[in-house]
Amino acid sequence: MYVKGVNLGNWLVLEKWMSPALFDGTTAEDEYHLPQQLSPEVYEARMKIHRSEYITERDFATIKRIGLNTVRIPIPYFIFGDRPPFIGCIEELDKAFSWAEKYDLQILIDLHTAPMSQNGFDNGGICGVCKWSQTPEEVEFVLNLLEKLAKRYGQRKGLFGITPINEPVTEEMWVTMDVPGRYPPVDKEMAAGSAPNTMEFLRQFYSDAYDRIRPNVAPDKYMVFHDAFQLHAWKDFLTQPKFDHVMLDTHQYLMMAEAFGCERTPESYFKYIQEHYAAEIAKVQEYVPVVCGEWCLFNSYAVGFDTKGGQSVLNGMDFSSNTDSMPAEVKRALYRQLGEAQLDAWKNGSGYFYWSYKLLLDTVNEPNWIGWDCWDLGKSVDQGWFPTEH
Asked: In angstroms, how far is the first alpha carbon of the chain from the final one?
């Protein structure tokens, strides 16, 4: 099956930039600190309302209607409700499987966060902290969690596969993104000793995760390993005889292409897509299926400002003088062409998941968010930006 998918980001794992109102009344920048600044009653009510309204059965019907076949669902390490003060969300994932199976969709379960974080990103649950891999008992906690998930969903028709951990950062990306600078920690003492994961650790963790998951899932389900931002580092590892039905997940954003030196012009974007995305994915696909698990249309050229690798007002950027000056037809043509070029690139592999299905930002009245609406697949389809027929 060729994967045509979308991420249900910000549903079970919060990202402040995608729904800032959830963080109203607090100074929290991440999911870890949110319950520390709200009363238990307010926190519980806010989370339950958000989870019940953000994604519903209707969304699965919509995803099917626009021609997709798979959803990637980011989940938190506290999904079973065993890490207070966080509230579990296994019931929501249960519902998602029932909805997916009704509409003939499949689900990639993506463990998006780990205790003490695997990357220090805001989407890793706690900004500026990256110590999970240094904490053996928390590594074991995650392995046990993956085994429980495999036993719960491993035989379900709606399961496509399981990703053992999302975006574990290694040294090159840690430096490129300047993680401690981009995501300053609230608690410097907690963050002390934070460091990127080693490839040695990740290979061992992936091998252990495979051993815990594979016996509990049907033979046709996939183990989908994130490339840790090193697309070409996995050939010898993933071609070992022990691995069956494995897939490599790579995340490719134009905003990161900019961070790696791609000029902020349409011509440069198209060249980068051809020379890096299409060509490099084709090389990897020769020995292991590869899926682009996150990508979108977002780029600084369309925003009208250098976003410095996709940083927003929440990272201290100031776009308050921005105006939506690009004519609608020009923007539509730019996005469609960028969409078609990237979709063509992913065809050199085994598919894609757009990031993300929806977000709750006012991209019309708030100048700081002008240009950010293309992260929203639903809006991108409605505006004619995303080529659904491609």
From this structure: 16
Q: Which residue has the tokens 């998930």?
A: 149
Tokens coding 226: 């994130």
The CA dihedral of 6, 176, 261, 353, to the nearest 10 degrees, is: -10
The count of other CB atoms within 10 Å of the CB of residue 324 is: 16
The pair of structure tokens assigned to 249 is 């997940």
- Beta-carbon contacts of 74 under 8 Å, excluding residues fewer than 6 positions away, are 7, 8, 9, 11, 12, 13, 110, 112, 123, 166
Give dist(CA 36, CA 85) in Å, integer. Answer: 8
Overall pTM surpassing 0.85 (yes/no):
yes
Residue pLDDT, tens place only, 67-116: 999 999 999 999 999 999 999 999 999 999 999 999 999 999 999 999 99
- H or E element, residue 222: strand 222-226
For residue 150, the surrounding DSSP H or E stretch is helix 136-153
> DSSP character for 68?
-
Side chain identity at 43, as an amino acid letter? Y
Q: Give kind and range of the element (H or E) at residue 266.
A: helix 266-272
Contact (Cβ atoms closer than 8 angstroms) between residue 263 and residue 213: no
Inter-CA distances, 177 with 251, 262, 310, Å: 14, 15, 10
Q: How far apart are CA 87 and CA 79, in angstroms?
A: 7
CA angle centred on 100, ends 6 and 81, rounded to 5°: 85
What's the DSSP call for residue 304? T
